[in-house]
Amino acid sequence: MYKFIDLFCGIGGFRVALEKRGLECVFSSDIDTYVQEAYKKNFGEKPSGDITEISEKEIPKHDILCAGFPCQSFSISGKMGGISDPRGRLFYEIHRNSRLS
Prior knowledge:
- Strands 2-1-3 form a 3-stranded parallel sheet, sandwiched between helices.
- The chain has 3 helices and 3 strands; from the N terminus they run E-H-E-H-E-H.
- It has a single domain, classed as Rossmann fold, CATH 3.40.50.
- The radius of gyration is 14 Å and the shape is globular.
- It has helices spanning 13-20, 33-43, 91-98; strands at residues 3-7, 24-29, 64-67.
- It is an alpha/beta fold.
């Protein structure tokens, strides 16, 4: 069975899709406490918090990394600050954790 992690998980859209295909979620993370509670109601487990404060050692081995990271810093709908915007730097968290698979 393929295993995946769900970074910036929101309320679990990626998880719903992948679990329907038989994959197993082994880790989830979202900084928003309201989102964490909704995710817990949806899946019975509360996501870990701020991914920037979580050691790679705490993240289980996985085959797929899902990440719905904030796009406002890259979108024309936002200020387009790119990686100068703290949210834009979250892209590096995807890269940091992708090496675990």
